[in-house]
Amino acid sequence: MNRLWIIFAGFMITFTTAWIGLAMLPSAHYRGPEWGAQLGENDLLVEQGRGVFIQNGCVYCHSQQVTARNFRSDQDRGWGARRTVASDYRNDKRGLFGTMRTGPDLANIGSRNSSPQWHYLHLYDPQITSKGSVMPPMRFLFDRHKAGASGSTEALPLGDGDEIVPKPEARALVAYLLSRKHDVGEPPEAFEPPATQ
Amino acid sequence: MNDSRPAQGDPAAIEASRTQRVEIDLSLRGPTMHWLAVALFWLLLGTFEAMLASHKLTTPEFLAGSPWLTFGRIRQAHLESMVYGWLSAASVPVLLWMLARLCRAPLRHGWTLHVSAVLWNVGNLIGGFGIIAGYGTSMEWLEYPPVAAPFLLAGFAIVLWHGVDMLRRRAPGHIYVSQWYLFAALIWFPLLYLTAQTLLFWKPVAAIAQGPVNWWYAHNVLGLWFTPVGLASAYYLIPKVIGRPIHSYYLSAVGFWTLAFFYSWNGMHHLVGGPYPAWLVSTSIAASVMMVVPVVTVAVNHHMTMVGHFSALRWSPTLRFVVFGAMSYTLVSLQGSLTAVRAVQRVVHFTHYTVAHAHLGMYAFATMIMFGSIYYMVPRVIGREWPSARLIRVHFWASAIGITLYFVALTVGGIEQGLNLQNAEMPFLEVVRRTIPYLHLRTFSGILLSIGHFAFAISLVRVLIGKTRPAGEPTLLAVRHPVTA
């Protein structure tokens, strides 16, 4: 072949069809007022928490999607009462679906464990709540004092005479985690194949 | 091919062709040194980040006090250092050099390529620093804060302009398959990057649509940027080193067009099981399986070219790296076709298996071919010989054994992890605990890869600063025997 423009036209056609099919069609499909993040005033802290989640790369170990029963054991592990569907994410700003489960899925962590104290301790040192975890401790999200020294109502005793006080970033992150309740609302039967294969 | 030798028995024509080739090579000298220095810096930094991240996963207390060095940031920085810092910056000079030779068009206005190297490096520096400082995006393969993108795009625009300029000035006649791949890669990469930046960051689409856009980009940056450059190198260098033309022109054409058609539809297999329309995922699974066609075509073509000349692997550093890379391409692609199938995804999705697969593509295939290309290109373009065959040997074996161990460890570990995850009776922390031996093996393989990269760095730095002999007698790994075909 010795005509450059034929080669150019050819590889542009293949590229463009896939571009339309995989990038533009989904983008156009999920467009409209119902797909924007509808944020109330109380959600500001959650938004900040999403930022902390993003900046520290939590998604590299924690997915946020519950798969169907006939695909994986997510629901048997208690990660959600049903699989997640597209509309569950309509209030999210950033697609944080994840492709890795070095840690457990977080799509419904707010339903599973609604105790902020547990999350604070877990973030400060995962070994306190989850012995043997490989999660990095997020100590930099906390201040550590002698017990009682901070006078903060949010202080958590560590058991060795010290206490930790969550910084604003930690409070935001935990607010975000507690907001992860993708399995509330109508169970979309139409999307859930039968439990048996 | 364009670059083939003129008819034998015409000494004047042979000499003219040789003179022209030398002139073309030397026109690229300065920019090549600049781009390779940038690439080497990011290779070493990316290796360092990889070692930190790998060790952190088995020893969470390691450097845990600082947000700047937390696992989630280092991992993002590692990926980006390797994708944009190392492999892209290594691909650019190799791409332009091959294009210049195949078009018989010397580089013009070389200073602009220095500008592009600076822009590229600054984009990476801003991006890498941004991630560490907490501005990473957590979008896989697009982790740099969006402010880095204009620098990368501007730098690449200059590269694209040079590529088009060479193609416009090409010598008349047949266009070799490597030129098709290089031309396509030059156009595809900026379109991919611009689309992804626009739809994810500048005018972000709904969160649910970001998954498909993210993986359309992430898979295609391998398939439509690194793969075409890698295959172009294999198509160019294997015939060069062993001194015979590529086996089949028709297979080359089939391989190119089927790759262009199928690879671009592959990305959604990363979303199997996710909250997306079934047609979207199924289309990509089908396209992934169809990748068998271009892959087997290319493999047969390369193998038939090599047949009878495998002894050249004993002495040629270039051939060793390139053939290792080409064979890895076959392996990673066939593995990819298999992995995309839902029955396999049930087990290996969300596990270390995927990380192993990504490294087979980005390292065992693309990076190894770039190493081989650099070993061939540098003495001819920079005019200095590699200082030591031993360093090249260390580089090859440390890299080859290191990546093999890496792949085997995380593939086996990932399958076990997937099976354990499927067993809902097994507590999650027990699943985690059972992956740890494999993660230690990964760190060990990283040490081997680091040794290889240091050997490469010592060689390349000595070439760049002139602490080696001028080009002439090539540095070979063994005594070269005359080829008897």
From TrEMBL, chain B:
The keyword Nuclease does not apply. The chain crosses the membrane at residues 35-53, 83-100, 112-135, 147-164, 176-196, 216-237, 249-266, 278-300, 321-340, 360-382, 394-415, 444-465. The keyword Magnesium does not apply. One of its GO terms (cellular component) is membrane. It is an enzyme of class 1 (oxidoreductase). It holds the Pfam family COX1. SUPFAM superfamilies: Cytochrome c oxidase subunit I-like (SSF81442). GO terms for biological process: aerobic respiration; electron transport coupled proton transport; respiratory electron transport chain. Residues 215-485 form the Cytochrome oxidase subunit I profile domain. GO terms for molecular function: cytochrome-c oxidase activity; heme binding; oxidoreductase activity. Signal peptide: none annotated. Keywords: Electron transport, Membrane, Oxidoreductase, Respiratory chain, Transmembrane, Transmembrane helix, Transport. InterPro entries: Cyt_c_oxase-like_su1_dom, Cyt_c_oxase-like_su1_sf, Cyt_C_Oxase_1. Its EC number is 1.9.3.1. This is Cytochrome c oxidase polypeptide I.
